[in-house]
Structures are given as structure tokens and as C-alpha cells.
Amino acid sequence: MGFLPRRKRGRALTRLATAALAATLLGTTAGTAVADSPAPLPASLKNADFGKLKSTAPEAPKAPKSRMYSAPGEVNAPFFPLTGVERDGFLYMQDSNGSGFDERMFRGADWDAFKAAQRVDHNKDGYEEGMYFWTFDGDLGYTDFASDARRIGGGWNIYDKVLSPGNLGGAKESDIMAVDKSGVMYVYLAHPDGKVDPRIKIGAGWGAYTQIAGQGDLTGDGKPDIVARDASGVLWLYEGTGSYKAPFKPRKKIGAGWNTYNYLFSTGDVNRDGYADLLARATNGDLYLYKGTGNARAPYAKPVKIGWGYNAYRLMF
Fold this sequence. Notes:
This protein starts with 10 loop residues before the first helix and ends with a strand. By secondary structure, it is mainly β. Helix content is 4%, strand content 32%. The longest helix is centred in the N-terminal third of the chain and has 12 residues, at 11-22. A hairpin with an 8-residue loop joins strand 8 (159-166) and strand 9. It is built from 1 helix and 20 strands. It is globular, with a radius of gyration of 18 Å. The strands form 5 sheets. A 4-stranded antiparallel β-sheet has the order 3-2-1-20, with helices on one face. Strands 4-5-6-7 form a 4-stranded antiparallel β-sheet, with no helix packed on it. Mean pLDDT is 81; it is low at 1-70.
């Protein structure tokens, strides 16, 4: 198994790696059940002493182009590192460097408890202020790197897919979208401390998609967008609206043939041009970067191979 070596990792990787090591298991701090599940809350994970997760504020990211900003000091797509979780629970991380990712670094074990995880950029500075965790037992947890990792609520195993692609409701905080097993999508508006409001029903039909991905603005209007692949391999663009009542515009067809990939995800703006990019893993484990163009009619440039051996991972974010 090989991964393309890149430059020395940066500050964002160091910040998150420290927190990830401390937050391997979620705490048992009481939280509100936010999944609106009729089933009783599942048992919380075993106790863990996390201590205080300290971090310093990163330097403000430099913008190569003015369109990167929706307001002074704000970015429309974050610069998150790539994290991969192997089937044995080992966690590795790679920082983005403008053209791909640095060489991977081992950052922890026992991540087999987690079904999904998602960094969030609540203040739109390009760097993560926190991370959501979803466990196979149905717990939602959150760490803000300045206090104990904590459990937000339970009952989330009613959902087939969960994602935090950005500020779906119009505020700065990165909200959560979740699709249940019947294909109905719900949105949870987030607060800076990781807590979320009761869910809002968006609509049905989302069970037609096998993959949903997105992290920040893809089309250049400052609103987070997502892409969704259906069972036939067609990829669709859903442009964000900034309204929590109807967070996405009607879908637009991007193109067919996307079943050649078995994993689609986004870490945000890999090449730092102000637009969110897409990462796609081929069935042979090769990793491809699709750079965002800012054009809703043709949102991605031609793919560029940036790595190999990524079939080792069951989870990437």
C-alpha cells in the first residue's frame, strides 16, 4: 500500500491530531436526545478521561484570490486535512498542501466504534473549530478542542447517512443533514458549542442516492453545496440556498459514470482557490481529486490522481 508523499504537515493537522488522540472514545456528559427517535437512548460509551483539549488560534489563511471570501477574514470552503480509519480501527491523517495531501501519519487507535465523523468550521476561517462523531451505537458526540469531548444525544442509528457540509441554515455554524433509512432528509441547525436544535424535515426521495458528499461552497455564491450519486452512477448537484426550510435548489445533472468510484467525500478546498473540491476513491484504491470550478453548469475540472492504497480505509473524512 502506498500514499503519495507530500510536504511537511501544517498547523491544522497538528491541532486536529492532538484532539483526535484524546477523543478516541466519547465522554458520558449528559446531552439532549436530538434524533427524535421513538426508541430509548442507547447505552453511552464507557467512561474516558479526556482532560482538557487545548488549542491555539491558527494564523488567518491567506487568500490567493479575492472571491475566496464572503466577508473580510471569512472563507467559503475550509482547508481540512484528510483522515482515514482502517478496518482495525487505526486512524491516519494527511494535511492538505494545495495540490493534494502530505504523507500520512498514524494518529490513534480504537476508532472502530465510529460510524462517521465530520470536522466543522463554525467561524469560517478555514480551520476546524470542532468535530462531530457518530457511533455505531447511535450516539452523537462533539469536541471543540477546548473542553472535554461530550455526548450530544442518542438515537442517531435511525439514519443511513449523516453529513455536516456547512452552514445550511444561513448562520456561520456548520449544520447537520441526516437521511433516514426510508430516504427522508432532516436538517439539524447547529450552535457554536456543538448542540443542535430539533430536526427539521426537508423531504423524501434521498434514499435513491448511494453517496452524498460536500464541504463548503462549490459554485461561487458563498453557500454550501452537496453532490449526490444515484444507483445508476449519475452524479447530481444540489446548490445551497441558505434557508433552513429549503436548504437546496432543485438538482442539476453533472454526469454519468461515477460508479467507477466506491467512495466520494470532501475535505473542502484542497487547492485553496476558494471553491470546494471532491475526492473520489476508485475501486482499485486510487484516489482522485476533482477541483471545484465555481461554475454550476460544470462544477468540476478533470480528475487528477493524487494517491493510491486508499482501499485500506473503511471511513474517510
